[in-house]
Design a protein that fits this description.
Blueprint: E1 2-3, H1 10-20, E2 23-25, E3 34-35, H2 36-48, H3 65-75, E4 81-83, H4 87-92, H5 97-103, H6 125-141
Parallel strand pairs: 1-3, 2-4
Helix pairs in contact: 1-3, 3-6
Length: about 160
């Protein structure tokens, strides 16, 4: 999953939920995700090095859904309680696509994400969430309408 400013997908839904709910399931899952700035840096390095092939970029660390929700809530000063009470029900419902998308494991090996000796991980999970949420907060503060745009990368070759 690519996440960042303007990216559609599960991140905006999780962020909205993190701000509304006082309780969230504490699930030990792992997700391969990449922040848009990290993906942009990765693509830049591919272009700079005239690389071709099959690549698997992702953040330097796997993401845990519960941790992500906790970080979002914490940045907004919201208290959220993580509990394992819901886990048996979630495990039972894990065959349903949406439940599995949010709470299931979906990773590929971190070594597959290495690109030569280059480091394209310019933002870690915490900083990426800070940047996304800071901008969202500023838009709300200034009364600007939230507009969802496409998450995109523009590559300009000079």
């Amino acid at each position: 999953m690519v996440y960042g400013k303007g990216c559609k997908g599960n991140y905006p839904r999780l962020a909205k939920l993190a701000l509304k709910t006082p309780v969230f399931p504490k699930i030990e899952n792992k997700r391969s995700m990449i922040y848009i700035d990290n993906l942009s840096e990765f693509v830049k390095q591919l272009i700079d090095n005239f690389s071709s092939g099959l690549f698997f970029p992702q953040n330097a660390e796997y993401v845990n859904t519960s941790e992500m929700v906790r970080l979002i809530a914490e940045l907004h000063g919201k208290k959220i309680r993580m509990t394992k009470v819901f886990n048996p029900f979630i495990n039972l419902m894990s065959r349903i696509g949406t439940v599995n998308k949010v709470f299931g494991n979906l990773v590929y090996d971190l070594p597959l994400s290495k690109y030569g000796g280059a480091n394209y991980h310019i933002r870690d999970l915490k900083r990426s969430i800070e940047l996304i949420e800071l901008e969202s907060e500023q838009r709300r503060e200034y009364g600007e309408r939230t507009k969802t745009t496409r998450c995109s990368i523009r590559v300009v070759k000079s």
